[in-house]
Design goal:
Order of helices and strands: EHEHEHEEEEE
Radius of gyration: 13 Å
Helix content: 10-25%
Mean pLDDT: 93
CATH architecture: Alpha-Beta Barrel
Strand content: 25-35%
Distance between the termini: 14 Å
Length: 113
């Protein structure tokens, strides 16, 4: 089993939950896929893209549940990142956890992953 993670504002998750699917953040839509991170990548993703943002949640999914729409592609530093080409069915989300901010204003994910 390979768990992957998506950080997003609670309001985006609430809207997705009500709709039954998540089509991605503005960056995801622009890039043509939904960005995910592995546990090892998530804290750096939080630091780079979510510092100073509050009211965030972390979605946890099983990568295999996403089928062929999930591709592992090189990104930051040549690491392979999980990218979902298509909408995310909210029923596939295993856990949703609040992402508290640390003293520097960065989501503190260490205890969540």
């Amino acid at each position: 089993m390979s768990r992957i993670y998506k950080i997003l504002p609670r309001a985006a998750w609430t809207a997705a939950h009500e709709a039954g699917y998540f089509e991605g953040s503005p960056l995801d839509v622009s890039d043509g896929f939904i960005h995910f991170s592995t546990a090892a990548q998530a804290q750096e993703t939080a630091r780079r893209h979510f510092a100073g943002q509050s009211d965030l949640v972390v979605l946890e999914l099983e990568a295999d549940d996403l089928g062929e729409a999930l591709r592992w592609e090189p990104s930051r530093g040549g690491d392979l990142f999980p990218h979902l080409y298509g909408a995310l069915a909210v029923a596939l989300v295993r856990y949703v956890t609040e992402a508290p901010l640390d003293a520097a204003g960065v989501p503190a994910l260490g205890a969540l992953l």
